[in-house]
Amino acid sequence: MTTTVLPAAAAELGEGPRTARLAREAIASGLATTLLGALGLVLGVVAIFGPTRHLRIDWLLPLAGVRFDVDPLGGLFIAVTGAVAVAVGIYTVGYAQREHWARFPMVVLPLFVAGMLLVPAAGSVPTFLLAWELMAAASLVLVLSEHNRGAVRFAGVFYAVMTQLGFVMILLALVLLSAAAGGDAFTTIAAHADDMSAGTRTAVFVLTVLGFGSKAGLLPLHAWLPKAHPEAPSPVSALMSAAMVNMGIYGIIRIDLQILGPGPQWWGLTLMILGAVSAVFGVLQATVATDLKRLLAYSTTENMGLVTLALGTASLLSASGAPDVAAIAMTAALLHVLAHAAFKTLAFLAAGSVLAATGLRDLDKLGGLARRMPVTTVMFGIGALGASGLPMGAGFVSEWILFQSLIHSPPDGNTLLALAMPLSVGAVALTTGLGIASMVKAFGVGFLARPRSVAAEDARESPMSMLTGMGLAAAACAVFAFWPALVAPALRGVLDALPEVGGDTAGVQLATFLRLPGIDGSLSPALLAVALAAGVLLAFAASRWGARHRPAPVEVPLWACGAETLSPRMQYTATSFAEPLQRVFDNVLRPDTDVEVTHFAESQYLVEKVTFTTRLADPVEQRLYTPVVGAVIALAQTVRRAHNGSVHLYLLYGAIGLLVVLLVAQ
Amino acid sequence: MSALSIVAAVLQVVVVLVGAPFVVGGMRQVRARLEGRAGGGVGQPWRDLRKQLRKQQVTPRGTTLVFAVAPAIAAGTTLLIAAILPIFALGSPLDSVADLFGVVGLLFLGTVALTLAGLDTGTAFGGMGSSREITIAALVEPTILLAVFALSIPGQSANLSAIVSATLDNPGQVFSLGSVLAFVALVIVIIAETGRLPVDNPSTHLELTMIHEAMVLEYAGPKLALVEWASGMRLTVLLALLANLFLPWGIAGADPSLLAVLIGVVAIAVKVSVLAGLLAAGEVFIAKLRYFRVPELLSGSFLLALLAVTASYFLATPTR
Amino acid sequence: MSLATYTGVLDLTAGAFLLAAVLIVWRRELRSIVHLLAWQGVALAAIPLTEGLYEGNPGPVIVGLVVLVLRAGVLPVLLLRAVGTADAERRESTPLVNTTSSLLITAALTMLAYAVTRPIIALDQAAATRAVPAAFAVILIALFVMVSRRRALSQAVGFLMLDNGITATAFLITGGVPLIVELGASMDVLFAVFVLGLLTGHMRRAFGGTDLDQLRELRD
Amino acid sequence: MTWIGKIRRVGRIVEPAPAAPEPTVAPPTGVRGSLQLRHVDAGSCNGCELELAGAFSPVYDAEQYGARLIASPRHADGLIVTGVVTHNMHEPLLNTLAAVPEPRVVIAVGDCACNRGVFATAYGVVGSVADVIDVDVQVPGCPPTPDQIVTALRSVTGK
User: Fold this and answer.
1) Does residue A364 belong to any structural domain of this protein?
2) What is its main location (chain C) (predicted)?
3) What number of CA atoms fall less than 13 Å from residue D59's CA on the CB side?
4) CA distance A130 to A136
5) What is the ipTM, given to two decimal places?
């Protein structure tokens, strides 16, 4: 008891000034983030509707100069990032104080946001790469902000290596592009895109899909995401999962759909396969995950997979001569990016609120938060509803549009479409189904029922600033769930700038009713909500029938099958909840289970205890990454022989290197 | 949208509310007769409902609002579906509010509400039922959406009125390969979603073998009545949907006369009774599947749905 | 019989034909597998019957009747006799590929069949040709059944299904084969089943079961 | 198709219903013909269980009078208790009764449940059911016949 009391007392007595300073710094950092975000939001919205704005600062970067061209597509991503940053900034004010952040992450947080805002604004290859690197480095620093934990350090190294590998691929692709186009501005490259050789285009496509796909968390280069996102502090997780992954999507749209598009059919097909595999794999992992933030991170992979699938559909359809349906798919992709940003911000902020209150991320130990943290529970519920893609949730409308684009592609004579579309519907449907299961698990096991640990029992609601940040994100979720028409003009503006994927056709009409021109299909999320409310009221009214005959209502203990009490340990946990699905998909998930039976020494027939352990690793990571890492280590061991510690030898290496460079330069 | 089609939609809700317990009762009665019993009669579920509605409200300690409102949400989604579907007449005023994808979404919303309620109780059985229910729901979703896809191909739309009128305009397609496969797939899906044999046994007494029942084990009195009512309505609505998707004859048009609506009522009553009777009779011959064999059944139905889409897709080019 | 009815019936027949194959993959009970094979025989016989009735041509009708007797009557009865009486013999207890995967593979095979037969359909839009993918899918599924089943009897069923598929393809593409050819093919199949029946009997006497994996012992 | 043949051959095997007995208690909620019961074995020799199973079998079919056995006491209108109340089952019996929402009935089946029967002096016994909780209907007999049980059930359902 004394050990827990003492530090708290010390904090109150001796560290008053420190607390005040922490508060000042947290407010400054949060406010800076929010203001940057608001600025980005405004600029982004202006860019979507206005003409493309240019800004050149030649002195800032030697040789190339810095160049910003903000067009509608970039504007959309700037606006999304800005909006996420606004909510996260307000949230951070409370979170940084509660979690006692050091000064360093507080300074880097606005920098990270700035980097993300600059990426879509970049108008030339050097500027883009610079902004990309700023974003990557800042996020790495933020991931490492709790570096005294081993898991964080491991995740940081993993993230650093993978993000740099991705960067190298993007670098190569963009250098190839500017070399082929003879200029480094994106406008120049776009103008010369049609003259490029097929080989260059293919190489650029493959490299960008790998590089940007890795940032978006697509398979097989997703492995950093479920490690780095959960280990980062929650506001940073929210920024990474809701805003940074979008940059990967932005890159794919910008380079592969806009500048080089419309590509051949296999480009679209590749994107569809990558997207479908990522979506199904991500959601399967989310279904069996027991770590709340890891679950959300895998859900990010899932949703980015869905977006990529939609992008692939758009690309494939416009290459197959169906630009009007391609535009519908593109709308689905963009709307899903927006909706995902809203609900994932909310979910990660709520998870952070739980983490701050209990110190727990393990769903097996959580529970009973609904009574202890009601606002956070409601917030997470809204986010989870959005992530599950059910009606009344933020993700429903975009998934509905995606389905419409998949079922309305004209099959006439095209075997490829006739095979791809049904399989895609199956994949997306499986994703939605499992997504529902994973979100029911996260919400039902984590927040409802009874607390499974002392920490969860002692949880207290988060401060006002954190709740406000979540509230903003929840409001955005409500917009996407009930009134997506609000963002219709913005989507229209972006689509107009994307004629490569049918942006010049009618597209989806987003008003009170969503209508698809030329196609018989409509949905009205707002009216559906009103009608559902009426239905629920009617059901309530029906259940009031006979009420005057009823004895007075009572509260009773839970039915324990006749036994005295039902301990919280008897509840289903997240592991047991997902066990059936894990069994069904054990060919894919490859769980590692162990049952160990210890017998009494006296008799073989009496069991003293039974231990059951199950471990779920990421199978892709195990199969694909372990051999690669092994090979790299083996190579490093070979190279190590050259390092014998002699300064003379090292100088000799330098000299030889110089000679080689001189000879090659000849 | 005429006044009568609004009346028809309201009537659909009312008739489903009133008729659902009779459908359940009828099914039990068919089963009882085939087993050589007398049975409680078609009105038994109604008597049970009335009785439960007069009983005490019981709130298990520690449950939250989720537990309290879940039955109403489950019933509310089903009622909304009843208003959207073309049961008596085409062109419900809510037809353009949600298409078949929306209807499926609403169905799952109801399932999720009860699942969360099962978890909310914090009992072993509640969690067990929820876990099983959500597993089945997750595996059902691909089949159901693929079947929707297959059905939407002839009418080029997933809006229900469009699908049904496409069938009415072109009756031959009911007996096409795609349609038959989609029918079988949908039947399996409906059995799984409404917790009938062989997926779940609605009359089991053993908690360990339960799926739906385990989830609602803590409900009592009026809330239990609502849960049972909702599950009966869900069965009724799904059977009506099945009937009208594949055998829409008798349904009133988009701008119906009073007589047409009445014919529609009679037609659907006959169709649902026949379907329910067949389902109940079929149940006499089968035992419940082991829980981990259910995915086999569902993957089979997934295959059928996929074949349905493929068949309709590849054969969509009209014959000359 | 109008064109619409003819198209509908043919379409449905092809569907039933394919459905029987899918169900054979699905079920494990040998007895019901044989019953399903009989139903498939009925569907197969219905193809020339429908064609004959539609065209008013007695040739295909006779072929259809012969097929009906043979495939839906004689062969299943012979196979049923071969089903063992021991409980262990009545089920395909542990197929090499589990049921769920089998079904997904079946789905893939069917889609493949639809994809590869597109050129044939493109040639001729007649109702009969448009049912060819179903027949072709049955051929692929039959091959899969033969690969993945352990019991000798399931193998025989797979073999018969293969033959059904080939016959159906022939009926659908060429509008029927000459009676004598069909009779010859059916005789072949009949003999094959006799031989299989004998073999099964021998196996059971030699090994006490019809698990084909035990044939490996012969190598040593 | 042997099952269909069997169903046809067997037909209806339920025994004809005798005239309804005098109601002993009013139906708990005022709705006739609906009674869901949770069965509690408080310490029975399983003789009464067999007869109880008989009462709900196709031959006697208590379900035709609206009575049904169910799994959860929350869903029940009352308890049907068999056997003498033992020490171990004393608490569970009380807990189960408390879990049944009001209004509720308790039916004690068999001599042991009514008056301790042959276990009257056994060391593990608390008492008869009536010693522990309020009992509305008692069905004597060791064991009572299914007919007696059905009659008792009908006297509560009023059908």
Assistant:
1) yes
2) membrane
3) 8
4) 10
5) 0.87
Which residue do the tokens 């932005």 mark? A250
Looking at residue A9, its pLDDT comes to 43
Count of residues in chain B = 320
Q: Which domain holds residue C141?
A: 3-219
Q: What is the rounded distance in angstroms from the CA atom of residue A542 to the CA atom of residue A527?
A: 22
Alpha-carbon distance values, B291 to A57, A495, B61 (Å): 66, 48, 31
Q: Name every chain B residue with its beta carbon within 8 A of the beta carbon of D34.
A: 44, 47-48, 50-51
- Residue A382's pLDDT is 95
State residue A277's pLDDT score. Answer: 93
Put simply, whether A419 touches C (Cβ < 8 Å) is yes
* Residue A449 φ/ψ region, left for φ over 0, alpha for ψ in the -120 to 50 degree band, beta for the rest: left
Domain count, chain A: 3
Alpha carbon of B225 to those of A80, A537, B59, B71, B231: distances in Å? Answer: 46, 16, 14, 9, 10
Distance CA A169, CA D43 (A): 75
Assigned domain for A562 exists: no
Question: Mean pLDDT in chain A?
Answer: 86
Reported confidence tier of residue A10, pLDDT bands at 50, 70, 90 = very low
Q: What are phi and psi of C134, to 5 degrees?
A: -60, -45
CA distance A258 to A507: 17
User: Does a structural domain hold residue B320?
Assistant: no
Counting the structural domains of chain C, the total is 1
Q: Residue D109 pairs with which residues in a beta bridge?
A: D82, D139
Residues A499 and A581 occupy one common structural domain: no
Look up the domain containing A593 and give its range.
577-615
Any idea what DSSP says for residue D18?
P
Same domain flag for A462 and A594:
no
pLDDT number for residue A3: 40
Whether residue A535 contacts residue A543, with contact meaning beta carbons closer than 8 Å, is answered with no
Q: What's the pLDDT tens digit per position in A51-93?
A: 877 888 777 777 677 888 888 889 999 999 999 999 999 999 8
Question: Which residue has tokens 């997902």?
Answer: A578
Instruction: State the Cα–Cα distance between residues C76 and C73, nearest whole angstrom.
Output: 6
Q: Which residues span the domain enclosing B196?
A: 3-314
What is the dihedral angle through the alpha carbons of B151, B157, B158, B161, rounded to the nearest 10 degrees? -90
Q: Is residue A146 part of a domain?
A: no
Assess whether A499 and A536 both reside in one domain: yes
The residues facing D41 across adjacent strands are: D82
Confidence of residue B119 (pLDDT cuts 50, 70, 90): very high
Residues 6+ apart with CB under 8 A from C140: C109, C110, C112, C113
What local confidence, expressed as pLDDT, does residue C108 receive?
A: 86
How many CB atoms are located within 10 Å of the residue D65 CB? 26
C78-115 in b/e burial notation, b at 16+ Cβ within 10 A? bbeebbbeeeebbbbeebeeebbebbbbbbebbbebbb
Note whether C touches A: 3 CB pairs or more under 8 A. yes
How many angstroms from the chain centroid is the CA of residue A45?
Answer: 22
Tell me the shortest Cα–Cα distance from B190 to chain A, in angstroms: 16
Q: Which domain range does residue D119 map to? A: 33-157
Residue A13, pLDDT > 50, answer no
Task: Say if residue C203's pLDDT is above 60.
Answer: yes
Contact (CB<8Å) B119/A543: no
Task: List per-residue pLDDT tens for chain D, 159 residues long.
Answer: 577 888 888 888 888 888 888 887 877 777 888 999 999 999 999 999 999 999 999 999 999 999 999 988 999 999 999 999 999 999 999 999 999 998 899 999 999 999 998 988 889 999 999 999 999 999 999 899 999 999 999 998 888
- B→C interface, C-beta within 8 Å: 172, 175-177, 180-181, 184, 295-296, 299-300, 302-304, 306-307, 310-311, 314-315, 317, 319-320
Alpha-helical regions (H) of A501-559? 525-543
Please answer yes or no on whether C122 and A418 come within 8 Å at the CB atom: no
Measured N-to-C along each axis, helices B3-34 and B65-84 cross at an angle, to the nearest 10 degrees, of 110
